[in-house]
Each structure stands twice: as C-alpha cells, then as structure tokens.
Amino acid sequence: MDLVQMNERVPEALFLVGDNPFHGISHLSQERARARGEGAGSSEKAAEVVLTSLQNSANGFTFSVSELTLSILRFIRKRRSDNLDLYPMVPYAFEYVRIATQTGTPGLVKKLAKQIVMSGGPRAVAIGAKAVMTMNPSNLLSTYLTYEISRVKSSAGKNMNLVSLILNEVMTDMALGLNLDWLFEAYVKFLSRRDIIPGFNTRNFPFFVQKFKEWNIDTRNIIVATPFNKAGFQMNPSKQECEKTLADLSSPIVLAISILAAGYLKPSAAIEYLTDLPNLKGIVAGVSTEQQARTTFTLLNESFRNAK
Amino acid sequence: MDTIRIAVVGLGKMGLLHASILNFFPAVRLTALCDKSGLMVRIARKVFSQAGIRVVSGLEELADLDLDAVYVTTPISSHSAIARFIYKNGMARHLFVEKTLAPNYAEADELCRLVPQESVNMVGYMKRFSVTFGKAKDLITRGVLKEVTSFRAYAYSSDFMGDSKSSKTSGARGGPLRDLGCHVIDLALWFFGDFNVVSGANEAASGTTAGNSEFFRVQRSDGLEGEFDISQCMKDYRMPEIGLTIQGSNGTIKVNDDMAQLEESNTGKSTTWYRHDLNDNVDFWLGETEYFREDQHFINAILKHEKCEPSFLTAARVDSIIDKVRHMHGSGSNE
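Above: the input entities. Below: the structure tokens describing the complete assembly.
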C-alpha cells in the first residue's frame, strides 16, 4: 500500500482516546496519579469510557500494549460490532523498566525472548530463534514487532483495525540520540509492508524532523505523536521551535498529545490553542470517566468544526 | 579541548540513557561502550557497528582509546572498583559515576584520594537538576524561610511491591538507602549542609516491611532536626517519588518531583510552582529533563576546566550518612 492509500485510512480529523488515566498516570503530580490509580477501577470500566468516547466523536483508541489495555480490548470486542481503529504504542516502557530494575537489562532481554518464543507458533519460534542466533538487530526488531502485533490482534478480534503501531517515546528518543537510523528505517519498512502506518511518539519533535530529513526517510508515510499545549509543557527544545517545525511541515500526520499539559490547562483554553495550530492532523485526549469522555470529545469536535 | 571522547561502562538502562544524551552534544564523541554481559555486548556490537562506537567487554580494552572521560553506570557494588581501575591506569582524567559513589564510605573516601589534579568528577544525583528542587534550593538560599528549624524527607516507590524476593533484589541493587534514599539524602545535604544521624529504625514510618524500608532521624548543633522515611514497597507509587517538607521560622516549603510550594506564615500567602511554571524544557529530552541538565553540567565543566557539583567529595557525604544509619541498625556498612 503506498502513501496516499495509507493516509486515506486516517480520518480527516483524528480524535483519539488515550489510555494514560487507566494506568493511573498523571504528569502533573504523582499525588494525582495515585488518586487516579485508586479510582481507575477495572478494565471493564475503562472499556466503557472508551466506548463512550467513541460515541462522542472519538474515532480511534491509542494505548500502550499491556495486560490492562489488552483486557480493555477484549471487553470492547464483546460490546461493539462496528469497526474500531487502533493506534497501539510499543513497548510498554513502564513494565520493561520495572523488569529491568528487578532483573537487570540482560534479565529483561532473556525474559522478553522467552515470552516471544512461548507466544508464537513453530514459524514464529523459528524466525525468533534465527534472529537470536544471528543477533541481527533488524531481525530482532521484526520478531519483537510481530509479537506485539499478534498480542493486539488476538485481543482485538476482526472488527478492530490496526491502523498504526507507535514506537514509545523512550525508544524513539533514545534511538534518535544514538543516531540509529537503521532502526527507524527497519521499523518503517517492516510496518509499511504490513499496511500498518509506522508511528513515533517523541518529546523532541524538531530534532526528530531534522534527523528524518538528514536520513532521507520519507515522513509522508508516518504518524508522529508529540506534545502540543499552550503551556509549552514537554515541548522540547521550546514551544516556539515546536510550533515553527509544525508550521513548516507538509507532512507527516502529526497528533498532539499532552494537550491539557497534564491537567495544568483548562480544556477550553487548551483547545483554543490547538485549533490555531496549522498542520495538526489529530489529537489524543485521555479521559477517566464517561462524563469526561462526553464533554471532552464533544468539545473537541465542535471546536475543530467551527475553526474550519 | 574541542571534542570530549567518552566511554560508558555498564549498558543497563542508565548507561543507555546517558549514552543517548551524551551523543546529542556536538562536543562529545561517544567512543566506546563497555559491559561484562556477553549477551549485551553481542547485541550492542551489532547495533552500534555502523556508528563507529567500539563495544568492549573488559575495562582494560578502553586503555588505548585516548579517552577524556568515562561514565560508570554499573551496579553500585562495582562503582568504586571500576573508578579506581580507571584512575590508577590513567585511562581517563574525568569521571562521572552514577549514584551512589561507592558501596560504603571507606571506598568512597579512598576514591576521593585518588582523584587526579584538574579532574572533573561528578556523581549522578540528578534531582539537583530538577526545576522543582532547584526552586526550593533558591528559596532557602534567599532566606525566604529565615531560620530553617526542621524537615521531613521521604523517598517512596513500588519497585519491590509484591515481589517475594524483594529484599534480596533490593539488596543486590544497594538496598533502599543506596538505591532510592540516597537522592533525598543528597538533597538534604545540598539544602541544609551537614548533619548527624541520631537514631534509626529498620522500617519506614509508613509501616512497610523491613528489608525494603528505612527510617532515621538527624540533628545538628544549631538545633536543626530532620527525619527520613524511605520505602521501596509503597502501594501505588508507580513512579518513584521523593520530597521534603521544610519548616522555617517564616513558613514552610513543600517540594517533590512535581512541584514546589511556599507557605509564608507572616502573610498567610501560599504559592505553588509546577514544572510547567519553571521553564522545564531542554535541548534534548530523554527520561526526565534533569538527566540532560546533569550531563550538560558535566560536559560544560570539562570544556571550561571548572569544578562541578556534586563532586566525589560532596557525594561521599551521602555514603557516610548511609553507613552511619546502617551501623545504627547493626547491619554494618555493606547493605
């Protein structure tokens, strides 16, 4: 599938419901995160929040691939027969960092290899074993991505579309820092061949765009999820630089995350800022209750429709 | 010096994080990576083969690389041995060691004596580079509280919550004081200057289990009193959190990773600064903004031939405090 066809799969305006509140994440304060964690409740409750968002103008779900979010997908599958667009993010860095803390990095690598082998059929095992034997980084990456895609697909069922697979910000930014152009090329190539739009989450948006230009990687084929908010929170190196980079872009598909600056901004002020930004294709919003889902996505839809 | 040639020893998450940030600086040439794990070396050789970064499994292999600086990011138990080896063999003049400097004060002290002249040396107490703790330091330095009378410091995480082998695992990482509590001890020393350990208990005030928790009190001759509560098995601390409540004759400062708050007793005024209010952006983000500032501080000190803090000598005070607490608990200096 070429670029134009791939982009046609993405709605004109993307309003994605995010999963951070379900994990009890708040970048404003740990205290708030703990309160969220206690109130987050079950995956069934989270699934209801996602479903309510979808009934109120959200047109996709983005989430870190974890046992919790896979369980949410299974609940949604039972409740919804319409198609649902998915934008999962891998790896779920929190879990892997936790394992690395407890076992060390070699322990993490061994545990992940074991999980991949245990999860796959004979072919997957053979491909994985070959990748491990040769230690070819591109093959190791392909094996890992195959594993994550199969996890998502087996939980999501046939009525959900895997539109994009987004590389977690820690992985993206670490690879940027280490100048690992081969990793980005291999990631883009592997996913594009499978009709999945390669996605990247980054907190270094201008640097990301600069490096992709330098490496001659076609940015028209990708999704970039990156912070955009009135407070300039997590917009590195500066709010101005990020805005300028966005304004100068003709592609890729840019999704704004951290739009409320982790609860620091009021939704109306936050959305007013976003509607003024050129070249923004979509927005990711985390909501923790059905009421929040209704108000947030209705407001987003109305604001962006009026702004056009 | 135009280009600083750096090697990173230890390819765990901290080693990879520092390597990524260092590689961002135009003045840095990431020259080599070193790890004793055969698995990590094999993977790293494949990953970095095109980048011109040498990957080695033994420290001695760094000898011929004309290094200016080395980052030591291995487990705490090996920090001082590796740093000694580098200094004694003249492999690099400048050293950055992740926290804590050493597994005990005796080794930290010995290392301080080996530091060559004109060496820039630093320990990874990155919380000093957080905008919220920086704000608290600024308020204290400006005398906003007038006389500081007492403080309560905490460091909590859920890292070993529900892990049946947690005490053993935590111990392998240096125990709760070295693995987590050292950050808040360093901050307290930075904020208030030196103090003495006067009592301690082998469990946190929060009541979490022994082995992963510590509680102790400190005092100073001028009347300053403080207490530390450390636990690695607190419920719902998805991310580790450290903080202090500082009482002064003119009010209170509450500070943690997310915000600094000043309550002035004479006016009743309360002001809160979140990270958002404190210009928390950096040229290159990875992990937390403080990691970039910390590495930038070290690199700039080398380029400008300046000393930088926290130096080995400063950081050794943390090792001394931890040893005293451990001694008070009757478990010797090695956790």
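Note for the figure: The longest strand of chain A covers residues 84-90.
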